[in-house]
Design goal:
The complex is a heterodimer. Chain A is of the alpha/beta class. Helix content of chain A is 26%, strand content 16%. The longest helix of chain B has 25 residues. The model of chain B has no long low-confidence stretch (mean pLDDT 94). The chains are: A alpha/beta, B alpha/beta. At the A-B interface, helix 3, helix 9, helix 10, helix 11 and helix 13 of A face helix 19, helix 20, strand 17, helix 24 and helix 25 of B.
């Protein structure tokens, strides 16, 4: 046993030492903790950590196997995302104790704050005193034992697991119900309490999910999307899409769901042209060797940056929305092209990790598949706030795609219509986010860049907050981004298009004098090197491709991703359908697409008179439509249109 | 013909005389269509089949293919390996689908005849697919065409080369008869061989131009010692005899040499002939290299033909009363000039295969003494230029196997089309026409709405094989039945069409797809692709586009405010209309005054079930709260109405303020921005509770008759709500009076946007009518009487509930726990017109 005096030792150093002692198998005692945050985070060895006093936020968070004992109180998020091991708190716990745990045992001798065990997947959270409101909020599994009173709305929107209340159940949450204990369950509970020397002589009331909201009551009739390319622009007001929407809604009584990106045209990078004549771009076959394209992203605060062979990444797309084979193909392609891949929501599989040489690990509010071990083997961490396709909505995965394997990785019951929470349990505003970023850095020894993914909304405000929260870079996703499933109306009508989004973001960074050092990665409907160059001109430091990589790898854009029977084996978890996808062949297709993008970026950069993509700037662009001019502030040059071939329509 | 070559990126111009749609931004010729040498619009005919529109399918099939019935049976079908589904669970069985349609209509359809309209004539030597297709195209262009055929029938190798178990004779006649019907300008001279019966000079004198499509009629020798033995026959000759009706007695074991389509037919013919028990095919490369069409190979295997791969013949030796084919084994070496790996002999592998006969199917050649004499022949074919189809004689053109080597029926047809194209330009005196390119058309058929399209496996036709009497050559497989054909048709991806994605249009997807199939070192292709991608899109927001609710978006909650979980957390949507009427959803249904009773009942009950109200001059029913629309001076307020709304005409004049009872809501219906302020001031001063803004003027239209839906006439004028709110604000009376909106509201999203603009309750008219099954017509809507009352009631209720769900989802995404807390600041415009009409700033621009 060694003692670390937190009055003398900064938390960062203390955590590093704790992890080293953990590796040696030496127990640790922390004195003078003074309710500091993040004590012991990231520990993955079965040592005993005794905290002589009170701990702050996220005590024992992001750990596996260690045993913590806290003499006094803890702040919010004790045991955050803990895999196994235990925490015993002699005093009280703040809000969200046991948030997102996946097997640990957390015992609070006093009372605990609100939303105890939010989005927990497995393990036990026990409280000898009373719980505040919404204990078990959106829990997916495991059990919560409350020896005192339950607080309001206990079990609010729980999906799985059970809550046992010894005292009064103040009221039940939405979709929760009181059920009878099963045989032997009471004995199990008491054996657990005995192990932790908690005395309880009363009887337990058991609360479980009532199953009313796990699946959509009526399923929407599958319909192959009808091409509504006329439904904006000069189209009819009561166009065929409107008619179809109304017809379907009149049958199901519910909003429609679909996958893919927007169905309607929006102001886009396509509405910009180049000020110089670029018609000779690429006449030099060897142009790639003449333009500097390498870049690093995320090194701002001393973390190991992502090393990109060109200012391009893969946009976050989950294993879940996509098949494992597809994730493998994309990962392999990212490696071949020397760029970074991203896990999207729902965890990291060994196959994904193996395929991608650089992999960003994305964390969402449901903490599905989030854990310290995968954090440690990631090359970057990303906190998802929202996505361009459906900002405000959490991820959505219809039951057809929630296979046992996928449910295991995510730690959820299989066969539910998974609707992920749309906000984080522990991020209710910018201040919380700051502490969360710190926790992630503490847990991984400040090695990894931590980024934020923002769907475009109030971009200017959001970007400024993100900067204050100390992220290493910002991933901004315009509303032209795609999704595996979401409300069709949200996909088409919530959010800001990618073009105004980047304008606002760059403007905000300029306003606070951080344009030079904060890196911005733009995504959402960026389709090729031409779009990429325009984004780089407008101030993005890199761009990310999602949908176009899928298309390069065989997607036919049927917009039925949500159904789960993807005909090409991409957006499916059905083994028979997935077997249609050849990851090796498609990885080469995706790789060739990415190399085509590289060539296009190089050719255009060269044609614009530069030898380094960093020289691209907004003066290289002009606006071709009045909207684009007003949005970007670029000169409106309709004349450029006259000089450039236009797509012609000749409907017979 | 490679699908992903540079022509897919840099699409060459099509000759203007052909219909070609490659410039249509919503169309890309699908890989199957590009792979088809005659450019068949397969996606369209497949979709037509699913839709049971067989005549349209027939049109699409036969448009560029006079031998569609034949192709339905025996086309090499290069479309199928090109099908994108081939990489998934197998190609769409395009040929079998064609066969299905041709079996239905091929025998009976009689196309309109195209008369001769031109003075010139063309002589064509050889009536195979190349010659007849050229004849067809030239006849259709108005020329007189004479075809000289050395045998006694039309069809060439289609008739002499393909055994009847694959292509029954009636099928060929079907196509030939159709062609003759269409082409009265066609004169056929049978049993007239070039050189023997007619000379080239005669043809040149008789016709303005001559086309030589003499075919590759003769088998090539194997080039090994001993092949002069009479028991060694050549493949095409053997097939010719059998197709002439002979059924020669065969020895017990027959060896076929070669791996092409002739070898496949020969081995299967041998297998069917009397006396034959074993058929062995030897091929010098492996199963992956064999050029035979997969399906023929597969069928031959099913019929117990034995394949000996990596085996090459070196000699034929008599062995008693049998023959020994002496062979060596091979292995694959380096690729040769055509990219195939060259077979390399394995030392010491010599062995013999005993048999009674050898059929050599190692290639074909064209022979013609008379042409040879004038120096027009190469080693085994007529010398001709691919770029012009011309021979050394300026008046003589050539096409088909006899000019360009052995190929397929459909490729020979392409030759015929090319030749016809160049011949026409020659006859018209245009010596240097645009290079020929197969034209690509689309019929823009909607995608098949089959729910099983992703799951259906390949639909295999029933395979009969040898049948009970093999020597009679019964057909080997059956035509699809209707269900099977439709299931197969449903499998089509529709690579040619838009799917509904705006940013990933069919052309953009295709470009990404091509990028993914472009070698990163192929700079010319990359350059072509870049040029293509630098083309501009049309402005989706042309200046004539008026302001539209579609062009508003919501600003979502993110970091700067908390999102309300749209799946779970509560968001209030109820509204107290005029502070008197509690509505569960802030909606009403209106515009049904002229509708029939059944619709009125549905509106009343459906609105009541959803917790909404109704608005109209008459009460649709007893269930939903009714806001009575009154014509001032004509209608009196009804006791049964929860509210009375006086209709203001085109010009403002003071309105009655009469209520039927104390608790009644008092409202004004405003349809115009003229006199708006006067009306608002009057309403505020006279204790009105409600302003109903009618953005399309539909409710103000007194002349509405049954079947007319004035709401359809125009998009709503959003400036009406802008000016109303601005006026109230100016008067410092904002939120002092309820604002209802009618006109052009379609969804809950529209409702939420209107709330953001300042509206409290939203009326649905046409939207409800569409939910009730209304079909839009040029003048209004039609309702089929095919629904029960409960279905209609459910439809109205479901629409209102779904729209309520959508509206609250928008509110929650914007971080609101109450729909009516959506503010103008939660919205952005994406067009200038909408920004102007609504006062909502354009996204990305700084708000002043």
């Amino acid at each position: 046993m060694v003692t670390i005096d937190l009055a003398q030792t900064p938390v960062r150093e203390a955590n590093e030492r704790i992890r080293r002692y953990g590796a040696d198998g030496t127990d640790v005692e922390l004195v003078n903790p003074d309710a500091r945050h993040h004590l012991g985070v990231g520990l993955v060895h079965p040592i005993h950590v005794r905290i002589r006093g009170s701990a702050g936020y996220f005590c024992a968070g992001l750990t596996d196997a260690a045993r913590f004992e806290v003499d006094n109180n803890v702040g919010w998020g004790v045991g955050d995302n803990m895999y196994s091991g235990r925490v015993v708190v002699r005093g009280n716990a703040g809000a969200i104790p046991g948030v997102a745990i996946r097997g640990a045992e957390i015992v609070i001798h006093g009372n605990m704050g609100s939303r105890a065990g939010q989005v927990m997947k497995a393990g036990t959270l026990a409280c000898a005193g009373n719980a505040n409101f919404m204990a078990g909020y959106m829990m997916y599994g495991g059990r919560i034992i409350i020896l005192g009173d339950s607080g309001e709305k206990v079990g609010e929107d729980m999906t799985g697991g059970h809550i046992f209340v010894g005292g009064r159940v103040q009221d039940l949450g939405s979709d929760a119900e009181q059920v009878d204990l099963e045989d032997g369950e009471d004995d199990d509970l008491r054996a657990f309490l005995d192990r932790y020397e908690l005395r309880f002589t009363g009887t337990f009331k058991k609360i479980a999910n009532a199953g009313r909201k796990l699946r959509y009551a009526t399923s929407e009739r599958q319909i192959r999307s009808i091409p509504f390319f006329t439904f904006s622009g000069a189209s009819e007001y009561w166009n065929p899409k409107i008619q179809e929407d109304i017809y379907i809604k009149s049958q199901i009584g519910r909003y429609r769901i679909r996958g893919y990106g927007g169905a309607r045209a929006l102001p886009h990078l396509a509405d910009l042209g180049f000020r110089r004549d670029v018609s000779r771009a690429g006449e030099d076959a060897d142009v790639v060797s003449k333009v500097a394209l390498k870049t690093e992203i995320g090194g701002l605060n001393g973390a190991n940056p992502l090393k990109l062979s060109m200012p391009v990444m893969i946009a976050p797309m989950s294993y879940g929305a996509l098949s494992a084979s597809t994730k493998r193909a994309i990962g392999l392609a990212s490696t071949l092209s020397g760029i970074a891949e991203n896990t999207g929501e729902g965890g990291m599989s060994d196959a994904q990790r193996g395929a991608a040489s650089q992999l960003i690990f994305q964390m969402l509010g449901g903490r599905l598949g989030w854990n310290i071990h995968d954090m440690n083997r990631a090359d970057g961490l990303e906190i998802y706030i929202s996505q361009g396709a459906k900002p405000g909505l959490g991820g959505q995965l219809m039951a057809k795609k929630v296979t046992p394997e996928l449910a295991r990785i995510r730690g959820i019951p299989h066969g539910i219509d998974l609707r992920s929470p749309s906000r984080h349990p522990d991020i209710l505003g910018g201040d919380d986010l700051l502490i969360k970023v710190e926790e992630m850095r503490e847990a991984t020894g400040y090695r990894l860049p931590v980024s934020v993914k923002l769907g475009a909304g109030r971009v200017s405000d959001d970007v400024k907050i993100a900067v204050k929260d100390g992220f290493d870079f910002i991933e901004l996703d315009g509303m032209q981004g795609s999704t595996g499933a979401g409300s069709a109306e949200v996909i088409d009508y919530v959010g800001v298009p990618t073009l105004p989004a980047v304008i606002e973001a760059v403007g905000a960074l300029e306003e606070i004098g951080r344009r030079q050092d904060i890196e911005l990665v733009l995504m959402g409907g960026i389709r090729d090197g031409v779009d990429a160059v325009k984004a780089l001109c407008l101030g993005a430091d890199a761009v990310a491709f999602g949908t176009s990589t899928i298309i390069a790898g065989g997607c036919i854009a049927c917009m039925q991703c949500h159904v789960g029977q993807c005909v090409t084996g991409i957006a499916t978890q059905d083994p028979a359908h997935e077997s249609r996808y050849d990851p090796e062949a498609e990885s080469h297709n995706i790789h060739r697409f990415l190399e085509g993008v590289r060539w296009q970026i190089a050719a255009l950069t060269h044609a614009l008179g530069y030898s380094d993509f960093r020289a691209l700037n907004r003066d290289d662009l002009v606006a071709l439509t009045p909207e684009a001019a007003e949005i970007t502030g670029l000169p409106h040059e309709p004349g450029v249109r006259a000089k450039t071939p236009e797509l012609r329509v000749s409907l017979a | 013909m490679a699908v992903y070559d540079i022509n897919r990126i840099l699409v060459p111009e099509a000759p203007p005389e052909y219909e070609d749609h490659t410039r249509d931004v919503h169309y890309v010729p699908a890989p199957c269509q590009v792979a088809c040498p005659v450019g068949t619009d397969a996606p369209s005919y497949i979709a037509h089949i699913w839709d049971k529109n067989y005549e349209a399918a027939f049109e699409a099939i036969t448009a560029t293919n006079p031998f569609s019935s034949i192709c339905g049976r025996v086309c090499d079908a290069p479309c199928e390996p090109a099908c994108r589904r081939v990489d998934s669970d197998g190609a769409v069985q395009i040929r079998n689908l064609k066969r299905f349609v041709m079996d239905k209509l091929g025998a009976t359809y009689r196309p309109p005849a195209v008369p001769i309209t031109r003075k010139q004539s063309i002589g064509i030597v050889g009536a195979g697919p190349a010659g007849l297709v050229a004849a067809h195209d030239l006849c259709v262009a108005g020329y007189a065409v004479h075809v000289y055929e050395m045998t006694d029938r039309l069809g060439g190798m289609m008739i002499w080369g393909i055994p009847a178990f694959r292509l029954p004779p009636g099928i060929i006649e079907e196509d030939v008869e159709r062609l003759k019907q269409r082409c009265p300008g066609l004169t056929v001279h049978l049993e007239t061989a070039l050189g023997r019966d007619v000379s080239l000079e005669t043809l040149k004198a008789r016709h303005d131009a001559v086309l030589l499509t003499i075919g590759a009629w003769w088998g090539k020798p194997m080039g090994v010692p001993g092949e002069a033995d009479e028991r060694v026959v050549d493949g095409v000759g053997f097939l010719r005899r059998v197709n002439a009706g002979e059924r020669p007695e065969m020895p017990e074991t027959v060896v076929v040499v070669g791996g092409g389509d002739v070898a496949m037919d020969a081995c299967r013919v041998a297998k069917r002939l009397p006396g034959c028990k074993h058929v062995k095919v030897i091929y010098r490369r492996g199963p992956d290299e064999i050029p035979a069409r997969k399906i023929e190979l597969h069928h031959a295997l099913k019929e117990d033909v034995e394949f000996l791969y990596h085996t090459q013949q070196v000699a034929v030796v008599p062995r008693g009363n049998q023959l020994a084919l002496r062979c060596v084994n091979t292995t694959l070496g380096a690729p040769d000039e055509d990219g195939r790996r060259r077979p390399v002999v394995i030392e010491g592998s010599e062995h013999e295969i005993l048999c009674g006969a050898v059929i050599a199917a190692v290639g074909q050649r064209g022979l013609c003494e008379t042409l040879d004499r004038v120096g027009m022949m190469g080693p085994d074919r007529v010398r001709a230029e691919w770029d012009s189809m011309r021979t050394s004689d300026p008046q003589v053109f050539a096409a088909g196997d006899g000019a360009f080597g052995g190929s397929t029926i459909v490729m020979a047809m392409h030759h015929g089309q090319r030749a016809a194209y160049y011949l026409r330009h020659f006859l018209e005196g245009d010596g240097d026409p645009l290079p020929y390119r197969t034209p690509y058309r689309t019929r823009r058929v909607p995608v098949a709405q089959d729910l099983m399209w992703e799951r259906f496996p390949i639909q295999e036709p029933v395979f009969v094989g040898l049948g009970e009497r093999p020597a009679e050559f019964p057909e080997i497989e059956l035509t699809y039945d209707t269900d099977t054909a439709r299931a197969e048709a449903a499998r089509c991806y529709r690579c040619d069409a838009e799917t509904g994605s705006a940013d990933y249009s069919v052309q953009h997807r295709e470009d990404i797809f091509s990028m993914a199939r472009t070698d990163p070192r192929d700079a010319s292709k990359l350059k072509a692709m870049l040029d293509r991608r630098l083309r501009l899109r049309e402005n989706p927001f042309p200046e004539e586009r008026s302001a539209c609710l579609d062009d508003l978006v919501f600003l979502p909650a993110n970091l700067s405010r908390l999102v309300i979980d749209p799946y779970r957390e509560a968001c209030r949507i109820d509204w107290r209309l005029g502070e008197r009427l509690a509505l569960d959803v802030p909606f009403f249904v209106a515009g049904f005054d002229a509708a029939n009773e059944a619709l009125q009942v549905a509106v009343d009950r459906g609105a009541a079930a959803a917790g909404a109200a109704c608005l109209g001059t008459t009460r649709p029913g007893p269930n939903a709260p009714w806001l009575q629309l009154c014509e001032p001076g004509r209608d009196a307020p009804s006791d049964n109405a929860v509210g009375v709304v006086y209709r203001v005409g085109e010009r403002w004049h003071p309105m009655p303020t009469m209520r039927a009872h104390e608790g009644q809501i008092l409202g004004l219906l405003l349809t115009s921005r003229r006199g708006l302020e006067d009306a608002i001031v009057y309403a505020l001063e006279h204790g009105f509770d409600l302003l109903v803004l009618d953005g399309t003027g539909a409710l103000g239209d007194r002349g509405t008759r049954n079947g007319e839906w004035p709401e359809l006439r125009t998009a709503p004028d959003l400036a009406l709500v802008r000016d109303t709110i601005a006026t109230l604000r100016r008067l410092k009376q904002e939120e002092m009076i309820d604002i209802a909106w009618f006109g052009g509201a379609r969804s809950g999203t529209d409702a939420a946007k209107l709330v953001g603009l300042g509206v409290n309750t939203i009326g649905y008219g046409v939207a409800a009518a569409l939910a009730l099954g209304g079909e839009m017509t040029p003048t209004g809507m039609l309702f089929a009487p095919d629904r029960t009352e409960e279905e209609r009631v459910g439809a109205v209720m479901n629409l209102l509930k779904a729209n309520a769900g959508e509206a609250s989802m928008m509110a929650r995404c914007a971080g609101k726990t109450r729909l009516h807390n959506i503010e103008p600041e939660d919205l952005r415009s994406i067009t200038r017109a909408t920004a102007t009409a609504t006062g909502i700033p354009l996204a990305g621009t700084r708000v002043a």
